[in-house]
């Protein structure tokens, strides 16, 4: 009998690890990129994709962000049909766009629209880093500029959540032109007395960080977000100096006066609501 028991133990022990992995449904577990602790995916979603162990803020998809901020069933999307073309005939660009469209369910890397946050109307734009790493092409610039113009016409505040690896190289100078286009739209909106709240998430870099993401009336960020124009390695090679360990993090930017506040995701909705109330009819 003992022989049978130990024989079974040996047989079970000899099962390949890959076969053992097959028993775990795909997507059931998720590893934190901050502390490497493993959680049930449903627990991560319940905490708005913030690690309950180390506080690491994992990226949120555009519609997850919208659902976490807006009153239920109040968000109305704008310009959903705008998509990128291939003006430079860049090889395989259209195929890559189509692949990301299937993966994310989005036509482009930004969702714009308007809705209610604690019953207060606001225009909104949120970039999704799952789509071409949030890179800014002409379609993204157009959608953001239109959203700002709509906010100006309707005399409501504008909130934008940025997440981007920078300009989209497949569109060349047309991508870089979006920096000027969005900045001009913000200037017109600001001159009309509009309120702009910018929230930078991980990562916000390149042309996005150097344009609309950094010129809000309030400039916020999520904890640990990477914020900067050029990459760390390029800067170190250029100035021939070693940069601080926390260089280009949200906390570093706050310390050096580039941000107004670093806000935990669980406090984001309440903070935005308070600001909208403060600026509504002079705070009355």
C-alpha Rg, in Å?
22 Å
CATH architecture: Alpha-Beta Complex
The shape, in one word, is: globular
Return the domain count: 1
From the N-terminal CA to the C-terminal CA, the straight-line distance is 82 Å
Q: How would a crystallographer describe the biggest sheet?
A: 8 strands, mixed
What is the top-level CATH class?
Alpha Beta
The averaged pLDDT comes out at: 90
Residue ranges: pLDDT <50 for 5 or more in a row? 8-18
Number of helices: 11
Order of helices and strands: HHEEHHEHEEHEHEHEEHHEH
**CATH topology description:** 2-enoyl-CoA Hydratase, Chain A, domain 1
What is the percentage of strand-forming residues?
15-25%
Which descriptors apply to this entry?
eight-stranded mixed sheet; 2-enoyl-CoA Hydratase, Chain A, domain 1; globular; alpha/beta; 284 residues; single chain; 11 helices; 10 strands; two-stranded antiparallel ribbon
General description of the model:
- Helix 6 runs parallel beside helix 7 (about 170-190).
- The radius of gyration is 22 Å and the shape is globular.
- A hairpin with a 6-residue loop joins strand 1 (about 30) and strand 2 (about 40).
- It is about 40% helix and about 20% strand.
- Strands 3, 4, 5, 6, 7, 8, 9 and 10 form an eight-stranded mixed sheet that branches.
- With about 280 residues, it is an alpha/beta fold.
- The chain is built from eleven helices and ten strands.
- It has a single domain, classed as 2-enoyl-CoA Hydratase, Chain A, domain 1 (Alpha-Beta Complex).
